[in-house]
Hints:
- The protein is of the alpha+beta class.
- It has 5 helices and 4 strands; from the N terminus they run H-H-E-E-H-H-H-E-E.
Amino acid sequence: MMSVYSAERAVTKTKYLSLVAAYFKGEFARLLAARDAELLGELKEMRSPVRDDQGRLVFDFRFDQLYFLLARRTDIGDEELPSALGNGKDVRDFCRLISRPWPMKELELHGLSIKPVQLARSTGGTLYRIHSIHPQLGG
């Protein structure tokens, strides 16, 4: 019996990056806004800790760091990763997918906002900040 060629089950790079972007706009934003302990722990390990500024969540990141965390957390089911990944353009392509246009409406659904705080030559190297629109009340 012949085996099915694995490329038939591989997701394309474009589709994969779209899934990672969708995770960022949806589940990641929801977990971040809810201050999910597991996610906060992973962000701290990534050296991008979330801090509290008078009840407001503040998260500073660079896409070249965040992309790898998001990629690890994105579920692609039983499909295989695209073979085109890892060619050095993944972060750049992901940044373009997210930042043109910025997912303002999606983040606002979770009470979050995003802005650049320290520009760099590359989109991946620019420091961005996600923060709560409203302070968290109580504890």
